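Example S7 (structure tokens).
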């Protein structure tokens, strides 16, 4: 669907991830997106997928319930078009077609399951539109529940990208079985993360790291001790590597129930924040980045920009 440059539309985009499902409702006109409503739900759609290879019935029910609530919100706000994409969990699960069919039958909502490449494009697009004044290279890091994308570029041009099987849910389920986490479990996970991170693109000149996704915004929320999620305080927050290191030490020393009492950490993320934070921290170490700029603009923003045909990306090169 294309819109004329002068038309004003009320659109929605939905990002269906392994851990969370996110909704953005916005008014768009020309090249501008004005957010009207945003929310996320930890539906944990990809729970157990690494072990079983399929979406569990309970997880699908949570996903259906979440998307039903989002559909009602869109209807109440008179949204004209809804665009929805699914990422790692729907890419990997053998029965994802069943979930897509149920959503289509119940809500008449079509979900496009996108590749790791497309996920990288959308994440980078969202950031590049937000940081149009930045001239140096940027490395966008999108830590998800099942995969993590690293996208290196400048302006609206992507130079290198990679999608790795690193994720907060994936690695929690795979490595962190004790509560609190045992040293041996942590060391095994850390070694595996470092092994995979050796593949990420390294810039030949100084670059800025920008972190998007729920893991990154949660870490920024905890760093500021926010009692509730305040996008204005999280978007463009600078998360220092040393501060993140201290957070990881805190999570490692607490049980999941104890973590739920930490200001800024949603209870639904308490079990997976250690693995997600470790991925970001070790990426900062690998790239010798002292800090990361946190962005609240992820795939759902990039999806709207793409649908508005406001950006024509150059060809991607995967490393």
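Recovered sequence:
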């Amino acid at each position: 669907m294309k819109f004329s440059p002068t038309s004003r539309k009320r659109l929605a985009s939905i990002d269906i991830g392994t851990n969370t499902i996110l909704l953005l409702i916005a008014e768009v006109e020309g090249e501008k997106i004005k957010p009207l409503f945003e929310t996320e739900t930890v539906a944990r759609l990809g729970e157990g997928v690494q072990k079983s290879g399929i979406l569990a019935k309970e997880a699908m029910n949570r996903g259906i319930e979440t998307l039903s609530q989002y559909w009602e919100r869109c209807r109440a706000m008179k949204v004209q078009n809804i665009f929805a994409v699914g990422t790692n969990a729907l890419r990997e699960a053998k029965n994802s077609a069943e979930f897509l069919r149920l959503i289509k039958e119940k809500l008449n909502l079509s979900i496009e399951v996108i590749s790791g490449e497309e996920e990288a494009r959308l994440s980078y697009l969202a950031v590049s539109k937000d940081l149009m004044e930045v001239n140096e290279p940027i490395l966008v890091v999108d830590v998800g529940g099942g995969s993590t994308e690293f996208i290196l570029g400048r302006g609206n041009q992507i130079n290198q990208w990679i999608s790795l099987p690193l994720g907060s849910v994936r690695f929690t389920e795979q490595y962190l079985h004790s509560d609190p986490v045992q040293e041996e479990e942590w060391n095994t996970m850390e070694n595996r993360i470092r092994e995979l991170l050796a593949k990420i693109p390294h810039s030949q000149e100084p670059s800025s790291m920008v972190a998007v996704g729920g893991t990154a915004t949660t870490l920024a929320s905890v760093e500021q001790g926010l009692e509730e999620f305040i996008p204005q305080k999280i978007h463009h927050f600078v998360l220092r590597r040393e501060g993140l290191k201290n957070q990881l030490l805190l999570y490692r020393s607490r049980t999941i129930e104890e973590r739920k009492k930490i200001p800024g950490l949603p209870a639904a993320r308490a079990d997976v924040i250690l693995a997600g934070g470790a991925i970001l921290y070790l990426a900062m170490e690998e790239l010798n980045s002292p800090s990361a700029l946190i962005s609240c603009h992820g795939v759902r923003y990039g999806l709207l920009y793409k649908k508005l045909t406001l950006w024509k990306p150059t060809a991607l090169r995967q490393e």
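Notes on this example. The longest strand covers residues 32-41.
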